[in-house]
Amino acid sequence: MLLWINGPFGGGKAVIARTPPPRDRAQGGLGTEEARYARMERMPPVPESSAVPADRAVANDYDSFAEAYTAEAEASLVNGYYERPAILDLAGDVAGRRILDAGCGSGPLFAALRERGAIVTGIDSSTRMLALARQRLGASAALHFADLGSPLPFADGAFDDVVASLVLHYLEDWTAPLAELRRVLMPGGRLIASVDHPIAFKLANPGADYLATRKWSFHWTFGRHSALMSFWHRPLHAMTDAFTTAGFRIAVISEPQPAPAARDLFPDEFRKLTTSPCFLFFVLEAV
User: Fold this and answer.
1) Would strands 248-254 and 225-233 be described as parallel, antiparallel, or unpaired?
2) What is d(CA 194, CA 264) in angstroms, rounded to the nearest whole number?
3) How many CA atoms, within 13 angstroms, populate the side-chain half-sphere of residue 192?
4) Average pLDDT over residues 10-20
5) Which of 123, 213, 229, 247 has the smallest number of CB atoms closer than 10 Å to its CB?
6) What pLDDT digit, counting tens, does each position of 233-278 carry?
7) Cβ proximity of 107 and 133 under 8 Å
8) What's the pLDDT tens digit per position in 69-121?
9) HEC letters along 176-205
């Protein structure tokens, strides 16, 4: 069964994951495919009561592994051939549109939107991810340190679109962040968002209450780095209720397929990705 991890509003996006078999996670001596899986694995959820003490680990600390994460996710199956292409397909023709990349990380989606003619502004709460984005995008790129838990430094109606790529599931309460994203969108503007597919959480935790909004954590190992990650599961109805309450109309709910080129590059993972829940995508219109 596939499980999936994601990128935060603290910088970054996603890599493919699977429930690890009971073996050593070290990569030494593994073949190419096994090494790839070892890098991509996600550990099973860690109960909150057994989380690493705060003085030993900070959850979602992308400043501490920004470079490693960026290298890992740059051309991974679920990033380069699934999540980013899906966001770009949903965005469509963006030439001349003012777009806020909320949670831009090291800037791959920002770059892709800009190449398509969009006027892009990026925000992130990881200073290290923003530094990497600056290296990628150049000194003139509009990049800002900002957190969705606080008011954004933009005028009302400043943007035609907002993209929130694997961001919202890091937030316990969506009320204020969605209201702020709605504020900076012009009437009729779009919020294009991707989140963990809620059914994936239930598949990974059969005994869990799917209908409850709850925090869950796991230790994620990629390369030589291990990180404590925490996210908020919420059922589909909680997502749609939050969107409509914030002043959005749901235009699209999508469960897309990966780009066809991924079939030859990731043959085993491609089959699993095309038959298992991964992320859920929304196009929301500001009303």
Assistant:
1) unpaired
2) 25
3) 22
4) 36
5) 213
6) 999 999 999 999 999 999 999 999 999 999 999 999 999 999 999 9
7) yes
8) 898 888 899 999 999 999 999 999 999 999 999 999 999 999 999 999 999 99
9) HHHHHHHHHEEEEEEEEEEEECHHHHHHHC
pTM of the model as a whole: 0.82
CATH superfamily of this structure's domain 2-286: Vaccinia Virus protein VP39 (3.40.50.150)
Q: Which amino acid is at 272?
A: K
CB within 8 A of 99, min separation 6: which ones? 91, 113, 118, 119, 120, 121, 159, 160, 161, 162, 163
Residue with tokens 């969009």: 118
Q: Which residues touch 159 (CB under 8 Å, ≥6 apart)?
A: 98, 99, 100, 121, 184, 185, 186, 189
Both tokens of 74, joined, read 């740059």
Structure tokens at 32: 């190419």
The H or E element containing residue 159 is strand 159-165
Q: How far apart are CA 190 and CA 249, in angstroms?
A: 9
DSSP-derived 3-state class of residue 41: coil
Query: Hey, what are 8's tokens?
Result: 């935060």
Cβ–Cβ under 8 Å, residues 246 and 178: yes
Judge whether 15 and 207 are in contact, CB under 8 Å: no
Rg (CA), the chain: 18
CA 148 to each of CA 20, 55, 123: distance values in angstroms, whole numbers, following the listed order:
33, 25, 9
Q: What percent of the chain stands above pLDDT 90? A: 70
Structure tokens at 167: 């961001």
d(Cα 6, Cα 173) in Å, to the nearest integer?
18
Residue type, 266: F
- Which residues make Cβ contacts (< 8 Å) with residue 163, sequence separation at least 6? 87, 91, 99, 100, 101, 102, 109, 113, 191, 192, 193
Residue with tokens 């989606």: 109
For 18, the token pair is 């699977």
The answer to whether 98 touches 157, Cβ cutoff 8 Å, is no
